[in-house]
Write a structure and sequence with these properties.
228 residues; two-stranded antiparallel sheet; 14 strands; 18% helix; 41% strand
Length: 228
């Protein structure tokens, strides 16, 4: 074998070995919705009346328009997290952890995609989704009116286990007349917008409670972008 051929083979082998050691890049974007059992768009008087009493429960969901996580393509798939915390989520004076969570993954996902969806959701949900006590698969739909998240008309369903439906806030939703965004979203969101919760429920097992909490100013909708 000629020296030039040997050198070329060595370079190819070295490049392959180097590439194998590189971390897999994650790059995903899509739509997000969450709803809690306390107002997120509200006045201080309402917020103070709920803090420590309610707001410890939430449903959160991601729809991945395009992207991969841990080398697994997740285009068009969705994942839902359901959280029960120990105190009002977002309260800066009292830690809401430890919390327990249920994860619902899209039934269209392969086993490999299910694992990737779980890893993605835990990365986004951080401590809220650290202790997952139950994982199940369900048919998940995540519909955005006219494909425009800024409409704030979003409907998320995870079988008959969990759901969120939102609409835009309007003047009739302002009771104190000086309402504002009182809490931040539970995860990193681009263009987060508060919304009115037309429907929110969890009817599954694993958290020691179920709930049906419509008619609140308790939702956020937006887009997400994850890169590392």
């Amino acid at each position: 074998m000629r020296l030039s051929q040997s050198f070329a083979i060595f370079c190819l082998a070295s490049s392959a070995a180097f590439a194998a050691e590189l971390p897999i890049a994650n790059n995903l974007h899509g739509s997000y919705v969450e709803a809690r059992t306390a107002d997120v768009y509200t006045g201080a008087c309402f917020a103070n009346g709920e803090t420590g009493i309610t707001g410890d429960l939430a449903v959160m969901g991601w729809k991945i328009d395009r992207g991969s996580f841990n080398g697994v393509k997740l285009d068009g798939l969705s994942v839902v997290g359901v959280v029960r915390a120990t105190s009002t989520l977002g309260d800066p004076t009292v830690a809401s952890n430890p919390s327990r969570a249920i994860l619902i993954v899209d039934e269209k996902a392969t086993l490999e995609q299910q694992h990737a969806l779980r890893a993605f959701a835990q990365k986004m949900g951080k401590s809220l989704l650290a202790d997952i006590v139950r994982v199940e698969t369900q048919p998940i739909t995540f519909d955005v009116e006219n494909g425009n998240i800024h409409s704030r008309n979003v409907k998320l369903t995870a079988g008959k286990v969990a759901a969120i439906e939102t609409r835009p806030l309007n003047e009739d939703d302002k009771i104190c007349r000086h309402e504002d965004v009182y809490y931040d979203p539970l995860t990193e969101v681009e263009h987060a917008m508060p919304a009115f919760t037309k429907a929110q429920f969890y009817a599954g097992a694993g958290l020691g409670t179920t709930w049906d909490y419509p008619g609140k100013r308790s939702a956020f909708v937006g887009t997400f972008q994850y890169n590392d």
